[in-house]
């Protein structure tokens, strides 16, 4: 029997790769993959709807759905990080702990992106840094941003600035024109035409740029003990016309992602680079802190995380109403 052939765009992700390269199959589907930087992917999908299945920013998904854009998510969350733990600060900023960020200048790649949403929410709720008592600087241009595709306007009461086109998060942090930003060093930044830090890395002394959390492991333990989850920033969506015509795609696609993740888990020990002499010990420590599966799929296992995300989006003025979680995910996947 012929398979339904669908275009599929995603960033490279080891948990998803077995599905993209055909090692595992989603029943009844022939996926035609495109690899794309997440920032580019979301802009392309939000603005042009190019792909039938696409990786998608959770924050932008909430905003797009609130504006009536027809797309449907499945509860697969392949990308999770401790986003506030990635914030870097300039040594001359006077910031020694999270509470010191009050009154400072913080840079984000994009104001509405999920990473920034988590950073603002966690800084406010866990460390008392109100989003209204910080100067926010955004790198992406309106033309190449998620917000440009969804009609983003800075929420009322927010101090919001756009970084000049000849500068970047990296260059401004190095020059201490901003005090803090979640930006990787130029040696690890993945090239992307929507993010200028990969093209304008700046010049200066990177030794003057320090992590807000010098040791992220204790902060990860604290956060996970308090909240019970690691924040996710991406999901996968089915374009509205495809979902309406073929609703069965949602369940089969979800099952394919589950199989791909299981395949990855089986091969996990083999994938630890030999250069990481204590790689297996770090894996054991990760499991002791976060459990055997810190990246669960399904709505049930992620309800607390998703409710927190929806609440943050609403209170930060990105969405006017809080949707029910069941409205956001395909009906056949809601009990999984």
Could you describe the 3D structure shown?
With 336 residues, the protein is α/β, with parallel strands linked by helices. It folds into two domains: 4-79 and 232-333, D-Maltodextrin-Binding Protein, domain 2 (3-Layer(aba) Sandwich); 83-226, D-Maltodextrin-Binding Protein, domain 2. The chain contains 13 helices and eleven strands. The chain has helices at residues 17-20, 38-48, 58-66, 114-127, 146-150, 169-174, 216-227, 240-245, 249-266, 268-271, 279-290, 303-315, 325-328, and strands at 4-10, 29-35, 53-57, 71-74, 88-90, 105-108, 135-138, 159-162, 180-181, 209-211, 234-239. It has a six-stranded mixed β-sheet with strand order 8-7-6-9-5-10. Strand 7, helix 5 and strand 8 (159-162) form a beta-alpha-beta unit. The longest helix has 18 residues, at 249-266. It is globular, with a radius of gyration of 20 Å. The relative contact order is 0.19. The mean pLDDT is 91.
């Amino acid at each position: 029997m012929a398979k339904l052939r669908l275009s599929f765009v995603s960033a490279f992700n080891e948990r998803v790769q077995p599905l993209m390269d055909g090692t595992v199959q989603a029943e009844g589907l022939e996926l035609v993959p495109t690899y794309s930087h997440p920032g580019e992917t979301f802009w392309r999908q939000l603005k042009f709807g190019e792909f039938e299945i696409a990786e998608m920013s959770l924050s932008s998904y909430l905003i797009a759905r609130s504006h009536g854009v027809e797309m449907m998510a499945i509860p697969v969350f392949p990308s999770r990080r401790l986003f506030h733990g990635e914030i870097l600060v300039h040594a001359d900023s006077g910031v020694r702990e999270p509470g010191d960020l009050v009154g400072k200048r913080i840079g984000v790649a994009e104001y509405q992106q999920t990473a920034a949403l988590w950073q603002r929410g966690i800084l406010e709720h866990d460390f008392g840094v109100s989003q209204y008592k910080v100067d926010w600087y955004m790198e992406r241009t309106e033309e190449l941003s998620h917000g440009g595709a969804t009609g983003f306007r800075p929420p009322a009461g927010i101090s919001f600035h756009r970084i000049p086109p000849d500068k970047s998060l990296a260059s401004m942090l190095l020059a201490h024109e901003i005090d803090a930003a979640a930006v990787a060093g130029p040696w690890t930044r993945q090239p992307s035409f929507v993010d200028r830090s990969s093209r304008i890395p700046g010049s200066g002394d990177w030794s003057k740029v320090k992590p807000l959390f010098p040791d992220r492991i204790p902060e990860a333990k604290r956060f996970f003990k308090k909240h019970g989850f690691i924040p996710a920033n991406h999901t996968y969506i089915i374009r509205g016309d495809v979902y309406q015509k073929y609703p069965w795609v949602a369940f089969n696609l979800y099952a394919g992602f589950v199989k791909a993740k299981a395949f990855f888990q089986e091969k996990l020990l083999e994938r630890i680079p030999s250069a990481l002499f204590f790689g297996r010990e770090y894996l054991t420590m990760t499991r002791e802190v976060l459990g055997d599966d810190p990246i669960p799929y399904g709505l049930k296992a992620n309800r607390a995380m998703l409710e927190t995300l929806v609440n943050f989006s609403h209170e930060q003025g990105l969405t006017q109403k809080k949707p029910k979680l069941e409205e956001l995910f395909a009906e056949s996947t809601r009990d999984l």
